[in-house]
Design a protein that fits this description.
With about 80 residues, the protein is mainly α. The protein has 4 helices and no strands.
């Protein structure tokens, strides 16, 4: 996914994040892989990074997600 790789690059190099509508599509894919919408309080960039294993879930995030946290990363 180009969007995920774009985020990988901008994590270490200056540059704008991917377009909001593209991040929203990745969120939709991650929600589909989880079987339901997740983490609506997370911004799209954080959700993409956590959902693809670029950023680990915190203990608080694991607790809030409950059993579905075991599915993470949703896409790697």
């Amino acid at each position: 996914m180009r969007t995920v790789h774009h985020l990988d690059l901008t994590a270490h190099l200056p540059g704008p994040p991917p377009a909001p509508e593209v991040l929203r599509l990745v969120r939709d894919v991650l929600d589909g892989l989880a079987g339901r919408p997740l983490a609506q309080d997370w911004d799209d960039v954080h959700y993409v990074r956590v959902g693809t294993g670029r950023t680990p879930l915190t203990a608080a995030e694991r607790e809030s997600l409950g059993p579905v946290a075991e599915l993470f990363p949703l896409f790697g």
